């Protein structure tokens, strides 16, 4: 069964067990997905209200953008666990002969790259989610303003958690060219912190 199809308790029971996956990568994607869901909720609490008619078009646009990010983050919850399982399976391949060793090494490298790409994609989605959410701060139902602040915090948790998963896998990649693909990760953290801080402080000031 996919993680996303489980009850919350079933998922948490697996998470707290000795099973190595799901782990931090899946949790990061889930945190970010919660952020996207909250932003979409605020849009739905704004769009039908006549008193917020001036924000209707913007919120409709933001809702569509947010749901696109949400769908990708939901998929990322299972993608991260699948990526870990691929790495684990690669390490279990036989290594008796030179040919087996070569195949095993190739499989490990391929799986490690995927295990790095998945959380890096989560980081990109978190940045996108923060940018989208920032569009409706002060331009949506003020009774749900706090939810946008919580959305920002969830996106920030998602991007920072995903960053840790990028960094733990990066040393396992032998190709410097491939490693360079993830070179912007630190800058993304700084960008996310600035975006989340602005949203949080603007929301707090409005309460």
Describe this structure in words.
This protein has 207 residues and is mainly α. The chain has one domain: Formiminotetrahydrofolate cyclodeaminase monomer, up-and-down helical bundle (Four Helix Bundle (Hemerythrin (Met), subunit A)). Helix content is 74%, strand content 0%. The chain has seven helices and no strands. The chain has helices at 8-15, 24-44, 56-91, 98-134, 145-169, 176-180, 185-206. It is elongated and about 75 Å long. The chain starts with 7 loop residues before the first helix and ends with a helix.
CATH topology title: Four Helix Bundle (Hemerythrin (Met), subunit A)
CATH superfamily: Formiminotetrahydrofolate cyclodeaminase monomer, up-and-down helical bundle
- Based on CA atoms alone, the radius of gyration comes out at 20 Å
- Run of helices and strands: HHHHHHH
Instruction: Determine the number of helices (DSSP H or I, runs of at least 4 residues).
Output: 7
Tell me what the CATH architecture is: Up-down Bundle
Average per-residue pLDDT, rounded, comes to 96
Helix content: over 70%
Structural class: mainly alpha
Unreliable stretches: none
β-sheet strand percentage: under 5%
The largest sheet is: none
**Rough outline:** elongated
Q: What is the top-level CATH class?
A: Mainly Alpha
Structural key phrases:
74% helix, 207 residues, Four Helix Bundle (Hemerythrin (Met), subunit A)
């Amino acid at each position: 069964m996919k993680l996303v199809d489980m009850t919350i308790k079933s998922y948490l029971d697996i998470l707290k067990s000795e099973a190595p996956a799901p782990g931090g990568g899946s949790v990061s994607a889930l945190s970010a997905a919660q952020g996207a869901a909250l932003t979409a909720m605020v849009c739905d609490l704004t769009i039908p209200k006549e008193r917020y008619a001036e924000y209707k078009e913007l919120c409709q646009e933001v809702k569509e953008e947010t749901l696109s990010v949400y769908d990708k983050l939901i998929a990322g919850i299972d993608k991260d666990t699948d990526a870990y399982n691929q790495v684990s399976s690669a390490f279990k391949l036989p290594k008796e002969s030179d040919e087996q060793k070569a195949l095993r090494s190739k499989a490990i490298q391929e799986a490690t790259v995927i295990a790095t790409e998945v959380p890096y994609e989560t980081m990109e989605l978190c940045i996108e989610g923060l940018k989208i959410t920032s569009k409706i701060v002060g331009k949506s139902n003020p009774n749900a303003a706090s939810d946008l602040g919580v959305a920002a915090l969830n996106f920030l948790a998602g991007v920072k958690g995903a960053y840790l998963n990028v960094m733990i896998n990066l040393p396992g990649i032998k190709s410097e060219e491939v490693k360079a693909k993830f070179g912007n990760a630190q800058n993304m953290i700084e960008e996310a912190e600035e975006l989340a801080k602005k949203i949080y402080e603007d929301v707090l000031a409005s309460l």
